[in-house]
Amino acid sequence: MQTIKAITENSPQSFDEDVSEFPRRLISRTELTPVSFLRRTAALYPDRVAVIHGEIRFTWAEHEERVNRLASALRGAGLQKHDRVAILCRNLPPMLEAHMGVPAAGGVLVAINTRLSTEEVRYILEHSGARFLLVDRALFDVVEGLDLEQVVMVEIDEDMSPDSGYERFIATGSPGEVESWLEGEEEPISINYTSGTTGRPKGVVYTYRSVYLNALGEIIEAKLKSDSVYLWTLPMFHCNGWCFTWAVTAAGGTHLCLPAVDPEKIWGLIDTEGVSHMNGAPVVSMWVVNHESAHRLEREITVLLGGAPPSPTLLGQMRELGFRPLHIYGLTETIGPTTVCEWQDGWSEMETDLLAPLLARQGQAYVISDEIRVVDPEMGDVPRDGIAMGEVVMRGNNVMLGYFRNPEATEEAFRGGWFHSGDIAVWHPDGYIELRDRAKDIIISGGENISTIEVEQIILRHPAVLECAVVSTPHPTWGERPKAFVTLRPGVNATESELIEFVRERLAHFKAPEAVEFCELPKTSTGKVQKYVLREREWQGSDRRIN
Amino acid sequence: MQTIKAITENSPQSFDEDVSEFPRRLISRTELTPVSFLRRTAALYPDRVAVIHGEIRFTWAEHEERVNRLASALRGAGLQKHDRVAILCRNLPPMLEAHMGVPAAGGVLVAINTRLSTEEVRYILEHSGARFLLVDRALFDVVEGLDLEQVVMVEIDEDMSPDSGYERFIATGSPGEVESWLEGEEEPISINYTSGTTGRPKGVVYTYRSVYLNALGEIIEAKLKSDSVYLWTLPMFHCNGWCFTWAVTAAGGTHLCLPAVDPEKIWGLIDTEGVSHMNGAPVVSMWVVNHESAHRLEREITVLLGGAPPSPTLLGQMRELGFRPLHIYGLTETIGPTTVCEWQDGWSEMETDLLAPLLARQGQAYVISDEIRVVDPEMGDVPRDGIAMGEVVMRGNNVMLGYFRNPEATEEAFRGGWFHSGDIAVWHPDGYIELRDRAKDIIISGGENISTIEVEQIILRHPAVLECAVVSTPHPTWGERPKAFVTLRPGVNATESELIEFVRERLAHFKAPEAVEFCELPKTSTGKVQKYVLREREWQGSDRRIN
Q1: DSSP A440
Q2: A31-45+57-208 has which CATH code?
Q3: Among A398, A476, B18, B43, which has the highest number of CB atoms less than 10 A from its own CB?
């Protein structure tokens, strides 16, 4: 009989020692960086179309060369490791090139919201310590009033003519790869400034590791493939385009640039370029499906919807035309989308009316994300009953490193060892979360919590309603009460009392709005309704302002 | 004019200091582990079918519970962190459960090739220092002769009846999650023993990080989705099933177990279970497409083919029936597949005769892999001309940590800072690599590696044998088989069948030569046996010679 000898000799300690001696670095471990996606795709599909902008088409070989030239030009202009390179630009090819070229050079990308004011842009340039500014000529008036003597500024021209600033700048660079300075995947790759409803914008720091993993997550969720054509309806300055700036490249798909959201143009591109994917706030899809050019799709288009739940009406219209809506949720601090309302068996066959409330939920974590929790103030899980409300908290590779040069805000956001989203949600028995409100939007009326989103969802079911926002309004007895602001569909009518009655029939009476006002809703550059504007208006002159 | 003040104050040093103070661990960083895939999928699809084995179906909730019970039972039986848990098992549910349960418990999985001999299994148990052995009752005769007193042994029964050893074992565990002991993603998760070209099998160490990233790579390459049904034609002991043990779970697809490759059964499962994916050596697909039950598919099946390039005949048959063949290449040391022959524009419309030579190439790196190189002996790139030959070398997150308790072999394999595959290839102008010769003499018979040197060493032990060389010979079923050329000692005799039997007694039966020819061996001037001369002779006139 043969005896196995060695077993008792192997203590866990000696095993760990044996294993710890392996030469990991470089051979068995590569630092994760999205730049590798470009290298691979350019090697694999050098002659396929990488980027489309109007009549301009760059192949992957051309795109990579332009990225290399940008990286090399930045170094030539004095860029040192981790120097911040700001870019204020619409969805043009240079914006995409900066997402690879700045990391390739070793810089940190600061993509600035194109709708900000001069003062906001000044603050971000100063706070981030930007040494470079790439600026879209169409946005030049925003920075015109600034003293930018200490900043290397490069002007981007929409038509990309060879004598424009950016083209001349990258022409100073060399076409080959510059040597990488990356030492560790947890180095910062970008800083994205949140609009921040109160006070100054905060700089959210992303790492190479976090955007690499999130890009893979987006490929898997959106099912990006090498024949995907991604239409840039989402601004690239938004969480670096929810990491699709890197994900589409990793998948070898095509970037279809769109400098401004224009439903007419979108339908033109859908019809001529074989669009397979586009992302954005529901309002963008609303414009698209309600446009006169809208027609049934020949090829399914996957649309990731974020920022607000899709309304039943929108869902119905999208399904009818052949779109595949996917409801996602995330924040700048979670590197973009981090939960997805995954379709379950049988949902495809469901009536839109029944499906809508299911798809309105934010869902569960992405495959690369840690489990999302909904917690009470003591950080305990709230019951998964679809009723108890708590705050949504996250942690893991989908969470920012922290707020740049703002340790107080970082500490506050990370209290208890989790990132606090500030969003209030319920947790359903099936594990899906559903937002009820921003913490600051919740209405406390006579001691009862009222979720403004819940009320909005009901009002949106009314056939005459196009858009709706509910905020608190002061009330002598109850402290505050909900008030609805509503935009009606063209050519349809509804009265205030009719809408209030509509809600009372479907929700607890105390949740019904006190008043309804018909108007245009104020929105952010990305189409998000600015509820705080409405709220401020309601509370102006009131000394009982709570939030 | 507003001045931007802060820029010159921000040196790169202060930036790095600011950024280094973030509280990364736990909040902004989670250690990558495939166990998280199971947690997420079980939360998302608790009631969907996770694992099918004959009439047995486990939902994700049930599968997770069984995994939890296994992890808990292992700890209950004394498992300490990094204890090796060996498993010798066909593609049965417990084999799948071990791939999650052992890491969840904190152990290191050693999945053993089910075709090895008692002596080989003994060596692996001893070398790995296994403290546990889960063994398929059908393979019990392999370990029967071993003294396993110091090993906790658990018997697995194909029918999974409640009174079988494994079922009783996991019943001792609790249904909930055990606390994770994982501290870092670069800890070892499994050791996979190669058959090895020289001498003893080598233990290839995988890390949590490497299998996590490779699993995501497989999802992206194979396009696994939550409605995928993966048929287990590939043994799970092969590089942990090329990481599909984890990838299919991450995608939320269904594992369809198959204890033995049987084309009749495979067609039955294709017809009844909606198979969407299966992997393996080309010979497996050959059996499938040539079986009398073969018919055109109703739903496309993606087949990853590895181990040898698909022949034109096979390709033609697969395409005609509606399979999507994808040629991949990798080694145990590269955590399974690491290159893929990606289809290019227009390939789908190509005639099989023209396509076959393109698809016979091993291709380019996976999205999560570093670029694969073909190098000369000085580690310089060979020209990309499709003619110059060199060795294929790799590095990155798709490369093993090293050979367990074999620093010399590790050093040798990692010389020059790259993993040396031992495979000889050309590099085509389009960046695709194409193997010209496998680790010189290795024989791949029915998807299994046979080291000629190993067989030679056994034959040389026979008292009548003076010299011996083993090379591959073509075989209609297995692709290739070993053939021995033997010079006998003067005045001593031995027959062909006697020598074959001699090998069968000492090695796995599939390694025994198909034929023995007695002759003088061709030699170089310095007395080295010229195996290539013998090989050329064997393959002369054969159109099925692959390399």
Answers
A1: T
A2: 3.40.50.980
A3: A398
